[in-house]
Specification:
Order of helices and strands: HHHHEEHEHEHEHHEEE
Radius of gyration: 24 Å
């Protein structure tokens, strides 16, 4: 006789355990690596979601199939070791893929903001970082920074741009955001210019202003480049810092 009650209990325990592990991984990813709005802006989370869903389904179902109290302890340990290795391998692969694409910097570059993913920066570029704070990618969420090209590095920056080695992905040119506020404020554009070019942006901007409880006169905008295209950053004209990101392609 098949001990269904024991099998379903094993299934339930396995499901809850898998769910807890998946929830912890999801908390890290959605609240630390991809905080709102980067989950929607950058994307790249489909693989993690797929693998987590498969883990939640196949892992506990495996328990339903293999668990049998009449088996020896050694046999059960072997079965669950194999299942655990397969589940953890899949989960680690999913987390690794997401980690490679996680946004590590939001960098002001020339006249816009750029969302830089960890995988966009080559290892040799980390070694050329201008400051010790930029020698490795952030693991605590995207950091707001700026870029600055010294006169003697202009040709290097131009050559890199021609080969797809853009300034935004080169820690050699990274500086603290606050050091470039004058330039950032000068490059920030008026909301009126955005609304003239994109009538569809008006309701989104108005809703954002209500949420921020700020008048339009205090807010400007900059384009935000990311791996999937462009968004728009609403900028505080007084401080020079972004206060809201909108899913509007300003181009």
């Amino acid at each position: 006789m098949i001990p269904w009650r024991e099998k379903f209990r094993a299934f339930a325990i396995h499901f809850v355990t898998t769910l807890v592990v998946a929830a912890l991984a999801a908390a890290l990813i959605f609240f630390v690596w991809y905080p709102d709005p980067y989950d929607a802006m950058v994307g790249g989370l489909k693989l993690f979601t797929l693998i987590t869903g498969i883990d939640l389904a196949l892992g506990p179902l495996s328990s339903l199939v293999v668990y049998d109290s009449r088996k020896s302890r050694r046999a059960l340990i072997f079965d669950y070791t194999v299942i655990a290795i397969l589940q953890l391998s899949a989960l680690v692969y999913g987390i690794y893929s997401v980690a490679q694409n996680r946004p590590v910097y939001v960098a002001f570059v020339k006249d816009r903001l750029e969302v830089i993913a960890a995988g966009e920066i080559d290892e040799q570029d980390w070694q050329q970082a201008a400051s010790p704070q930029f020698v490795s990618p952030s693991w605590s969420g995207p950091e707001l920074i700026a870029t600055y090209v010294k006169r003697e590095d202009i040709n290097d920056a131009l050559d890199g741009g021609l080969t797809g080695h853009d300034i935004g992905a080169r820690p050699k040119f990274y500086v603290e955001y606050s050091t470039q506020l004058r330039t950032i404020k000068r490059k920030t554009r008026s909301l009126a210019s955005l609304e003239r070019r994109h009538k569809e942006a008006i309701p989104l901007v108005e809703a954002a202003l209500r949420e921020l409880d700020r008048p339009a006169e205090e807010i400007g905008w900059l384009p935000v480049k990311h791996t999937r295209g462009f968004w728009t950053a609403l900028m505080d004209l007084e401080t020079g810092y972004p206060v809201k990101y909108l899913p509007i392609d300003p181009y």
